[in-house]
Amino acid sequence: MAGGIITASISDRIWGRDRVPNQQPSGGAGPGTVPTVGVIGLGSIGEGVASSLQRGGFPLVVCDVRSEATDKFKDGATVAVSPSDLVDRSDVVVVAVVNDEQVHSVLSGPDGGLVAAGDSTTFIIVSTISAPCVQAIGAEAAALGVPVLDCGVTGGPSAAATGDLVCMVGGDPAVIERAGAVFDAISSLTVTMGAFGAGLAAKLARNLITYGSWLAAYEAQLLAEAAGISLTQLAQVVKASDVHIGGASRLMFRPTVAPFTDEDDTGLVDAMRAGASLAHKDLRAALELADSLDVELPMASMADQRCDDVFGLGGAAS
Q1: Is 203 annotated in the active site?
Q2: Domain count of the chain?
Q3: Domain co-membership, 182 together with 85
Q4: How confident is the model at residue 32, as a pLDDT?
Q5: For residue 250, is it within any domain?
């Protein structure tokens, strides 16, 4: 776990050299104080984030429409009666609700959290929301002069519970730096992706890999089941071999997805060409088997068609 108690060095870097442990700030947090952190939304991610912050020694404020969710924290945290009440009590506000509508509900408009923000309040949105919602919240926050960071998170509820989320953050680098102790408490890795909006764009891209791989697994099971293979045994094989083979990131080593050119390393291009050739062979063998078993594998067909693009060959070799 990368979270835990804030070390003096981290606290000195973010909040000042003379931090007093668990000192409650009045108004905005400044040098010498630990920021009070509020978490709006205590679902599968928010509950873990709140728990990690509490273990990290942060004064904590929580808010959720479900009393059973806030009851878990009532002995060690302040339970706010509304999002604006939470914002009024917090220096850093983590928004961990489910969707666009809920984000707008807790942040936007005359009764929203952005209007209730103090001079030094910082918002971190970890909800997975759409690009238009990100843009709208960013514009509203900018008009009010309120610092907001968009933070895509991955790792799921188990990582949230242990403080090991992977955070993809977009926003002003100075604001990200000021919130560094909070990210240290909830994540094992925090990567600054770019300007506001880049964090959630990165999360959507990450999700695309996840859901695409689930479709691949579904088609693989269709083929295996039709061939009389135990799906339980196949899952065993996939889990064990993934440890050695790795995932999609093995092909994500270039700064661009554009096709290779004559200026690229010849050895690397030859290796990728050989990899694409092998992939075509294996995919076509799988499609032939599927055809003989009367199984449709549209994703496998598309993978064969786009294989050269995947390997950076731009359809030049098959």
Answers
A1: yes
A2: 2
A3: yes
A4: 53
A5: yes
Q: What is the pLDDT of residue 119?
A: 85
pLDDT at residue 11, rounded to an integer: 31
- Regions of the chain short of the pLDDT cut 70: 1-32, 315-318
Active-site choice (72, 74, 203, 239): 203
Predicted pLDDT at 31: 53
Strands 78-79 and 60-63: parallel
For residue 298, the domain's CATH number is 1.10.1040.10
pTM, rounded to two decimals: 0.85
Strands 148-154 and 165-170, sheet pairing: antiparallel
Can you read off the two tokens belonging to residue 258? 């554009």
Q: Cα–Cα distance between 115 and 85 in angstroms, integer? A: 11
State how far the Cα of 310 lies from the Cα of 303, in Å rounded to an integer: 9
- Following CA atoms 257, 258, 260, 262 in sequence, which dihedral angle do they give, to the nearest 10 degrees? -150
Could you tell me if residue 318 is inside a domain? no
Through-space distance between the first and last CA atoms of the chain, rounded to whole angstroms = 45
